[in-house]
Structure formats: structure tokens, C-alpha cells
Design a protein that fits this description.
mainly alpha; 3 helices
Amino acid sequence: MRRQESIPAEHMKSAKLPRFKSREEEASFWESHDVTEFGEVGEEVKLKFAQPLSVTYSFETDANTLSAIVRLAKTQGIAPSQLIVLWIKQGLKDARDSH
């Protein structure tokens, strides 16, 4: 197996990033380009998130219920966990709306 070596910065292209008129135009551009074409553009930043983007919660259910959830999720083309989250959000909305 051949060892990959990093390309020295002085040998990298340093093309200029274009200005984009929309996010769609930018997305289209990045579908056919790679950030390495632009050398060292920008600066390193550190990100802090105020809270986790998601959390995991587990629950117990019987095999028949789980099978029904899996089948229903499959018919909707989503993961069982996504279906359960949709149900929870709808239940919370309904509870808020009823008060």
C-alpha cells in the first residue's frame, strides 16, 4: 500500500473563491469543486455549542409494537427513530394546543 503524503503549501493552487448570488449557486459550485483547489483560504475558528444538538433517550417496548413501528416507518421511507420523534413532537404540539 502506498503512503499518502501531504502536498506542501507552496505547491497548492491558490485560486480565488467566487462570490455567490445564492446558497443554491454555492451548493452547485461545491458539487464540482474541492476546497483543496483553493490552498489555505480563511482562518481556523473554534466553535462552541451552547447545548447538544441532539440527545438520546431509550425506552422499552414489546416486540409486536416495535415490529409495527418498523413496518410503518418503512412505508413512509424514514427510520423508526425518526417516526417516533415525529409522533412525540406532534403529541407535544397537540398537548400545548389543547391548553
